[in-house]
Each structure stands twice: as structure tokens, then as C-alpha cells.
Amino acid sequence: MKQQQRKALALAAVLALSSLAAAAQAPARPAARGAQAAHAAADAGYKAYARRDYAAAMAAAQRAVQLAPARRDYWLLLAQSQLALGRADEAEQSLNRAAQASGDDAALARARADWSRSRALVAGEAMYKALQAGDVRGAITQGTEAVRLAPENAAFRLVLVHALLRDNRHADAERVATETIALLPDSAAPLALRAYARQGLNRPSDAAADLERALQQRGVQPAHQRQLRLLAADLALAQGNAQRAADLLAAFPADDAEAASRRELARQRIAGTAPAYALRAPGIDCSNVEASQTCILLAAAVPPQPGFANATAAYRALEERDVQRALAQARLATQASPGQRDWHLMHMNAALAAGEQAEAERAATAALALGADPVVLAQRSSIRRGLGDVAGANADAEAALQSGALPPQREAALLAELGRTREARARLATLPPTAQTPAANLDMAYLSTRVGDDKAAREAFARADAAGGLPPTSLLDAGYAAMRSHQDGEAVAYFKRAIDAVNGLQLKMEPQMVYDTRRTIADVSRKWGVLASITMRNGSGVQPGFGQVGGGGGRRTWQAGAEAYYRPWGFRNGQFVELFARGFATLDDQAGGNTGGDSFQGGVGVRWKPLTAQNLVLSFSRVFGPNVNDDWLAQIGYSLDYGTDLRVDARSWWTSRMYAEIGHYLENGNTYGIAQAMLGRSYLVGGDGRTVLFPHGFVGVEYSSNDPVAKTSAGIGPGVSLRRWFREDTYNAPRSYWDLTLQYRARLSGDDRMRGLFLNGLLSY
């Protein structure tokens, strides 16, 4: 308002100058030397006033009125000079003397109007300062004086009504507001203020009618229209008409905090859980009154509910991921305001983050008691399923689905939980990918993973990544989705980014999980490999993977074999196909059998691992050699291992290796089989964590349909293995190892093939 005061004073100065200049130009015929001196003094005063030297103007005017006290124009010059210097009381006295002198009545009237406006501005400024200081009654006194002196000033009137409302002087507020409506018939502000005054006078119908008229006024700026709707919602809440308040607030966006707090109050009032709403006087902003010709009303802040500080602290703690503090504050907030539904939901989220599933279920139930919500029902369904309450979870899921108000992705998730996978996939298929935000794509990716649609999951992760919405915590999930979709290169790229995120401190993973990720990279990216072995045992019989090999009897033999393989179509989520070529020969045979090139047995073929989660391998190859009947060999093998890879989170761990294989030669009709198991504990030895000692127990059995002595042989005994891993880098776990195994086997049954000392050296590259 200081700017308004300066403008008004400037206007008064211009008016004064024009009136005084007109008076100065009137012909003067001084009858004596004193009159001439008075005229000269007045002329000097006018000139000083024109150059804004008000002190000189006042001094000159004082000389002029002393010399010619009967000249009204001289007294008006003095009054205007005093007024310009802020000496309003002296200016009033000069105006009174001017009224006693003869002269231009219109000029006197204009001067009095200037004086009144100046006094009104002073009173108005005092009113504003009093309000800022919280002195409402002082503001009313000053505002009343400002309105009396400047009855045409709408801003003074509106601020006075605001002050009267704050002092609960509703009758006076209604009277001044009514006068202001007559002055500003097209303004919404005085109507809204009168509505609040009439509500205070217990006239709710008149109050509602006034605010409805205010809302219907034309030309109201959007910012003011928003405030009027908030004021109308507050009035409706105070009158107990919560549905009217909800209707008024429906047009506001969801992220409008002022509207959201009132919407929650309306919901609580409808549910009967909220206390009575006390109407508070609106704020007022008259900073743009010169341009808009009216002031803007500001809806009062909604009083904080009990527990508000705790709820705010809980929200902040959740953002900071301090889940224990969030949970503690959420408990306090919901205890203080059990009718605050949003706080129960926040309590639920805090409990979930803290792993308190039962508490989260109670919080969700409390929120649902305050109003049905399909989304919360769906959330409680997941919580109850995690608690083992399948019946309750299914009931919640069915109820949420029947509402028809869930987002399609949430519907698909519930259908998946209910085991209706086909329906879930069909629901997801209705969503257009181009219409999804990065966050929605991320949700879609996880939901697609949940229903087993790996292709859709991979595509959704890729869309989220392309839009910059794939967080580091989702890199592994995206990689596994790509891997299950047989996109090996894409999967490896995601896994490597996850490793980079760990190294860059953007992602936290346990060391063993980092190692397992590197192992996955090594497995998925492998295209070829080489295996080589050398074995010392009694006789020959069956060699795992190679089938029946040369030699016989129970005499000591040394045998060696090698194989190279290639995966033409990559890893294929563990369902790979390998082309292989192998050779096997006896180096020494105490029984006098073939050795060297005469004992060579080769094979080329293909094998297939048809299952991702089970290590079942089907193989078909052509076997040949100088002293071997060329034949077709069909094989099936199965292994089940535990703890056979490295561990970086422990120095020792239990390990088991179990393997079974059956082979059949199609042309000569021979069949063989082998089954063996090793159980023990692995120990890291050495300082680099890449050498493993594996003491174990062994049990095994071999079968050969064409053995002339005993078709079956079984043995048992202790053993020890030493394995050294190598060939690793930042992204790949060790891809190669050599292994030395020494066992002593006691015969359980059959001939001596499975008895005595057994030595095996293996290289996997």
C-alpha cells in the first residue's frame, strides 16, 4: 500500500498545482505595496512548489498570507505545501482559514479532498501495519477512519471487513461488505467476505448464496477463482455439507496440497470420523488493487490435525529411507488422529518397509474401515498372502477385482496372485506401450515377470531404460528378463551395468551376490569351451561323458581324454545346444590292452540341455576309432550339484556332487550306466580365495551290459580334491579351473573296477 499512497499523493500534488496555478494566473490588482509583496511571495511559493521544494514553498506561502490574509488562494498554497511535507494537522488549520476567506470554492473543495485522501492513506497504512503486528482492533480503528475519509477506496473497505471478521464482529462486517458490494457490483471479493460474515451470524443459506454468486462472477482471474473455490469448500465444511465441499474440490489436481487436505476432511466428515470444522477468516492481498480494482482473498490454512508433526516426520523419514524412525512416527500419528486415513496408509507403507507384515495388515485394515478403496484392498491382499492368510488374500483380491476401479496393471497382478495367469496376460496385452510413462513401464516389467511373460517384461524394461527411468536397483531384474528371453548380449550388458553401479556406489549388493552376477555373466557369454582329463584307475569300464572306453579287467590303467564344444545359438537361458568333438585314449594298461593310437576312440555329435532349472543333458554322437566298431551313441545325463562354485562370503561350506548317466549304442545294442556321488566340505586355501580343498566321501556304481565278468561294479571310500580357479576379470567370475582328485575306493559289489586308488586330473577351460 505504500506504492498506492505515493501515487495518491502525487495525484494530489498535480491537482493542487493545477488549481493553484489557475489561481496565480487570475488577474491581480494590488491596491498597495503590501499586496504587491504578498503577490511576489506567493509567486515564489508557486515556483518552489513546482520544483518540489516544499519547505521553501511553505515559507513563501506563510509570508504571503501574513501580508494578504484575505486571499484564499494564498491559504490554499500554504495548505498544499504543508500537506506535501506531511504536516496534515497544520494543513487542516490552513484549509479552515482558507474557508474564512473569499475565493474559488471549487479550488477549496479540491484541496479539502486532497487532504482527506492523504489522511485516508495514512490511516490505511496504519491499518495494514496493525494487522501485520496482530493488532486486529487497532486495525479496525484505523480502517474505519480510512473508510470515512476515502469512502470510494475499495481496498480500505475490503481490508476493514477482513479485520472485522477476525474480531468476530460479524454484523459490522456484513454492513461494510454490503456497502462495498454496492460500490463494486462486479467484484467477487466483497460477496465472499459477506458470506463469511453471514455464516458467523448463523445465516447459512444467505452465506451459501453469496459464495455461489461470487463463484459465478465473470472476469475473475484463475488464481482468484481457485481461492474462491477453496473458500466455498471451507464454508461447506463448516456447514457440515461435506459432499458439497467434495464436489467443489473435485476439479483440483491430485497434487494440490491445499485441496488434498480439504478433500481428506470432506471424506472424514462423510464417514463421520472428523470433528466439526471451525471456519476461519480468509486472508487478503491488495498488492494489485490499482490494476484489478479489487483485492484477492486467500483461503485460510487448514488447521493441522493432532499428530500432524509426527506424520510429517514419518513422511520425511520414509523419503530418507529411515524405516524404523518412519514406523515409530507413523504409530504416533495414527494414535493421535485415528480418523486420518492417509496416515494409516503411510503407517502401512512404513510397516512394510520395516518388514512388519502383521502391523502393515492392521494399518491397511484401519484405512479400509475409513473408506472402501480397491487399491488398498489389493495391497492388503498381497500383505495377507505374505502372512500365509491365503483365504483372506483371495477374498481381498476378488473384492478389489469386482470393483472395476483398479488400474489394468494392478488387476493383472491380482489375477496372477489368484493363479489366473492367462487372464493376467490378456489384461496386460490391452495396455498400449507407447502410452506408458517410465514408471508405468517399470511396473509393467515386474508384473510381466510375475505372470511369466518374459518377452513383455524385457520390452517394458527396455522402454523404461530408453526413457531414462530404469534405476540401478532394476538392472539385475532387467538382465534376467533379457536372459530368459534368450537375448544374451542384452542380458550381459545389463549385468555389467549392475557391476559398474556397485563399483560406482550407486547400487548396494552383498559380495556373494556380486560374485554370482559375475558368474552369470561368465555362463551367459560363454560360446565355446575345452575339457581335458587324465585318469588312473583299475580297469577301464565307463568314463563319464565319453561312455565305454577301452581296457578291461581289474588291472591298473592310465587314460586321457579331451573335448572341444561350441554353442551355436548361445546360452538360451540354460537351454543351450552344443556341438562337440572328443577323443579318448589309453596311455598305459597293465592288463596288456591297446594303448596309444591303437586305443583311440573318437566321437562327434550334438547335445542339448532342454531344461533351464535342471541339469538334464541329451546327447547323440557318432563314435569311431581304429579298434572300435563305429556306432551311434545316445546318452542321457543328469547332475545335481550344491556348493561346487566359489564362495566369497565364507571360508568353508558344504558341497555335494551327484551324477548319473545312461548310454546306448544303437548298432551293437550295448548299454552302460554310471551313478556316483561325493559329499563333503569345501575349504578355501591360500590367500587369494581361488583355491579350494574338498575332502569328501565317495560312492559309485557302474553298469555295462557287455562286460564278460560282472556287469555291475560298486565302490565306496574317502577322497580329496584340490581345485584352482583362474581366468577372471572385472565382469566375469573365473571361467576356468584345473582339478586334482585322489580317492581310495573299497569294493561294494561286482569286480575290481571300482576298487583301489583312483586319480583324476581335469582341466576345464
In short:
Keywords: Signal. This protein has 765 residues and is of the alpha+beta class.
What is the topology?
Blueprint: H1 2-25, H2 33-50, H3 54-67, H4 72-84, H5 88-100, H6 105-132, H7 136-149, H8 154-166, H9 170-183, H10 189-200, H11 204-216, H12 222-238, H13 242-249, H14 257-271, E1 283-285, H15 289-292, E2 296-298, H16 308-319, H17 323-336, H18 341-353, H19 357-369, H20 374-386, H21 390-403, H22 408-417, H23 421-429, H24 438-450, H25 454-466, H26 475-484, H27 488-503, H28 511-525, E3 528-538, E4 542-543, E5 547-548, E6 556-566, E7 577-589, E8 601-608, E9 615-625, E10 628-642, E11 652-665, E12 671-685, E13 691-704, E14 712-726, E15 736-749, E16 756-764
Antiparallel strand pairs: 1-2, 3-6, 3-16, 4-5, 6-7, 7-8, 8-9, 9-10, 10-11, 11-12, 12-13, 13-14, 14-15, 15-16
Protein name: Tetratricopeptide repeat protein
Organism: Ramlibacter pallidus
Keywords: Signal
The main pleated sheet reads as: 12 strands, antiparallel, barrel
Q: How big is the Rg?
A: 48 Å
Total DSSP helices? 28
Structural class: alpha+beta
Architecture of the largest domain, according to CATH? Beta Barrel
Average pLDDT score: 85
Morphology call: elongated
Beta strand %: 15-25%
What is the topology, as strand order, of the major beta sheet? 3-6-7-8-9-10-11-12-13-14-15-16
Percentage of helical residues? 40-55%
Distance between the termini: 86 Å
